[in-house]
Amino acid sequence: MNPEACAKLTDLMRDVSVAMLTTTAEDGSLRSRPMGIPKYEFEGELWFFTAVDAPKAGELAEDERVNVSLAEPKHERYVSISGRARVLRDPVKAKELWSPLLKAWFPGGLDDPRLALLRIGVDHAEYWDAKGNQMMVFASLVKAAVTGTPPAHLGKHKKLA
């Protein structure tokens, strides 16, 4: 992912503390669950803590394709990220990303035998950002409701490579 796209995603992810991670279950159904986002500078990979024996680890062994959705409704920012995920143990990265709150899931801290990281290499990202355009969005919605035509100005929508 190019530096400009990484910088844009970093900005869009700011103030978002929970993402929805979607994996594919064994029967082909999609499963989503909330994941806490560690604080770090995004450089083309997403990182999450997970347990090595979590159901998502088994799902990822079968199909590494994932989607991560982020929403920040207060500032009208929404992001969809597609990529490939891998469960791994990396003590150095875990220490870098660690937060004391994670002890709720990993009582043994960084030495917990179940502790692992989920690394997602980003393939595609797409965002919708209406930040600063609330009045324009509102006016466009009112006009659409009155005229019966689709709204024209709902903020920025862009795909990142």
Task: Describe how the helices and strands are arranged.
Elements: H1 3-13, E1 18-24, E2 30-36, E3 45-51, H2 55-62, E4 65-72, E5 77-88, H3 91-97, E6 115-129, H4 134-147, E7 156-160
Our measurement of the CA-to-CA distance between the termini, rounded to an integer number of angstroms, reads 6 Å
Helix fraction? 10-25%
Q: What is the count of structural domains?
A: 1
Which strand-content bin applies to the residues? Answer: 35-45%
SS class: alpha+beta
Q: Any low-confidence stretches, pLDDT <50, length ≥5? A: none
Separate helix tally: 4
Shape, please? globular
- What's the name of the CATH homologous superfamily? Electron Transport, Fmn-binding Protein, Chain A
Q: Major sheet: size, sense and barrel closure? A: 7 strands, antiparallel
DSSP E strands, number = 7
Order of H and E elements: HEEEHEEHEHE
Under CATH, the topology is which?
Pnp Oxidase, Chain A
CATH class descriptor = Mainly Beta
Which architecture per CATH? Roll
Name the average pLDDT. Answer: 86
From the alpha carbons, calculate the radius of gyration and give it in angstroms: 18 Å
